[in-house]
């Protein structure tokens, strides 16, 4: 009986010590809007798009109380990228539309600043964007193919702590990659020789553990 009581006390002490330790990891789920810029190029191809909406899943591991390493996976539902140029900017379509789903895989170094419950932060790192054409009646070419572009991620925002385990985050993220062409050169040439600076506002909630 004494041994059982001793082990019970030992487990209670260990549990108390573990709960007192500072959380070093967190996972967050956010809603996102992917806003791709209007692009004009020396090749006479212009690229328009409407915003894409989706979700972003992020994991952070704290290397110090104010620095962390982060990995992200994002996915948008659907948006339209419109290519216009002298060879395919004819009525009635005035361009070639490609319905697109976009995936993001990225990593970043995060630097935070602690101001009571407010924790502003900045981050930067590598990013990969996967442009996935949706082949249906909205896509006006059958020669659009999946394309992977590698670039860079930068951003800044703040986290507001609502409890020891949860915080609310809002952030502006920028992703710089080459403008997609969907490897489409047989039917149309979508080459722009330009880079996208994609804007991505993010709002979500994080759980610390």
What is the string of SSEs from the N terminus onward? Answer: HEEEEEEEEEE
Largest sheet: 8 strands, antiparallel, barrel
Q: Residue share in helices? A: under 10%
Domain count: the total is 1
Give the overall average pLDDT: 88
CATH T-level fold name:
Porin
Ends apart, CA distance between termini: 34 Å
Q: Got a strand count?
A: 10
Shape: elongated
Physical arrangement of strands within the biggest beta sheet: 1-3-4-6-7-8-9-10
Please give the CATH architecture. Beta Barrel
Q: How many helices?
A: 1
- Indicate the radius of gyration in whole angstroms: 23 Å
Question: How does this structure look, described?
Answer:
The chain is mainly beta. The protein has a single domain (23-208), classed as Porin, CATH 2.40.160.20. It has one helix and ten strands; from the N terminus they run H-E-E-E-E-E-E-E-E-E-E. It has one helix at 2-20, and strands at 25-34, 46-49, 52-64, 67-76, 79-84, 96-112, 118-133, 147-161, 166-178, 195-208. Strands 1-3-4-6-7-8-9-10 form an eight-stranded antiparallel beta barrel.
Briefly characterize the structure:
This protein has one helix spanning 2-20; strands at residues 25-34, 46-49, 52-64, 67-76, 79-84, 96-112, 118-133, 147-161, 166-178, 195-208. With 209 residues, it is mostly beta strands.
Write the layout of secondary structure elements.
Elements: H1 2-20, E1 25-34, E2 46-49, E3 52-64, E4 67-76, E5 79-84, E6 96-112, E7 118-133, E8 147-161, E9 166-178, E10 195-208
